[in-house]
């Protein structure tokens, strides 16, 4: 268990650095993390299934400005790991991942507060041309972010995996079934959050076409995605150019005498 806890902690630490050190590689997404958790714990299929469910919940989660979103890295890894170790499946993962992510969010806020000190120190070192101090002020926040997910993940798996598994196994099935039903509603909440940002009158017909295709034509997600790609191709390369040309033809000539239109 020590090796697994250490490996999962490292994965969590690398995950939180995604977008901060390595660029946005989507390594911090639950779907990707679920794969690695499954590999480490010996159940890749279950890890991917749980990661996909958690991805639906947190698909619309993004940190904007000074807002600190729930820690989906810690929540996703621990929720997936405890579900696999207990053998109780997706229901347990959904029940554990969300509160863990919200709880770990407080640690992320603390790290950000501490890092503001190093940001100001970096400004001072830059004015003094102190390159060593500047490098120190840049790498310490990275280390703190790494530890903010590595430490809780490592300790939770090493010290709490057996206790959590025993607790989950002691919970009556009726309660777990209820949590499973509630958990199945969470992906709908995730989609609602995403649609709240993206939904518009112009895009609404495409959404309902996809929904009806899945509900009544029983097409799978891959078929709907390919069909949507074809529709987008037709609109972009055939319909929009015609509309643009029509607008250019109808646009009145506002040039006055002596002016030259270089466009």
Bin the helical content: over 70%
Low-pLDDT residue intervals, each spanning 5 or more residues: 258-262
Helix/strand structural class: mainly alpha
The percentage of residues in β strands lies in under 5%
Largest sheet: none
Subcellular location: Cell membrane
GO cellular component, one term: plasma membrane
Protein name: PTS mannose transporter subunit IICD
GO biological process, one term: phosphoenolpyruvate-dependent sugar phosphotransferase system
Question: What does this entry look like structurally?
Answer:
This protein is an all-alpha fold and 263 residues long. It folds into two domains: 2-199, no CATH class; 200-249, no CATH class. Helix content is 77%, strand content 0%. The chain is built from nine helices and no strands. It has helices spanning 2-17, 30-41, 44-57, 72-86, 90-127, 131-170, 173-198, 204-215, 221-250. Helix 2 runs parallel beside helix 4 (72-86), helix 3 packs across helix 5 (90-127) and helix 4 runs parallel beside helix 6 (131-170). The protein is flat, with a radius of gyration of 25 Å. The termini are far apart. The model is unreliable at 258-262 (pLDDT under 50).
Strand and helix layout:
Layout: H1 2-17, H2 30-41, H3 44-57, H4 72-86, H5 90-127, H6 131-170, H7 173-198, H8 204-215, H9 221-250
Helix pairs in contact: 1-2, 1-6, 2-3, 2-4, 3-4, 3-5, 3-7, 4-5, 4-6, 5-6, 5-7
């Amino acid at each position: 268990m020590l090796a697994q806890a250490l490996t999962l902690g490292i994965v969590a630490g690398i995950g939180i650095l995604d977008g901060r050190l390595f660029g946005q590689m989507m390594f911090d997404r639950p779907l990707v993390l679920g794969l690695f958790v499954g590999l480490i714990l010996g159940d890749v299929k279950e890890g991917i299934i749980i990661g996909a469910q958690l991805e639906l919940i947190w698909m619309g989660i993004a940190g904007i400005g000074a807002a600190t979103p729930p820690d989906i890295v810690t929540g996703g890894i621990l929720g997936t790991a405890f579900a696999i170790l207990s053998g109780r499946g997706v229901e347990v993962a959904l029940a554990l991942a969300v509160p863990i992510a919200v709880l770990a969010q407080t640690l992320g806020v603390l790290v950000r507060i501490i890092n503001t000190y190093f940001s100001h120190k970096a400004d001072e070192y830059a004015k003094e041309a102190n390159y060593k101090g500047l490098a120190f002020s840049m790498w310490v926040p990275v280390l703190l972010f790494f530890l903010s997910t590595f430490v809780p993940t490592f300790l939770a798996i090493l010290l709490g995996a057996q206790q959590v598994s025993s607790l989950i196994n002691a919970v009556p099935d009726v309660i777990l079934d209820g949590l499973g039903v509630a958990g199945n509603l969470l992906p709908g909440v995730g989609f609602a959050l995403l649609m709240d940002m993206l939904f518009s009158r112009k895009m609404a017909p495409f959404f309902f076409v996809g929904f009806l295709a899945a509900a009544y034509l029983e097409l799978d997600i891959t078929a709907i995605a390919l069909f949507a790609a074809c529709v987008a191709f037709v609109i972009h390369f055939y319909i929009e150019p015609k509309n643009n040309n029509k607008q250019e033809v109808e646009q009145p000539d506002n040039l006055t005498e002596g002016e030259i239109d270089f466009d």
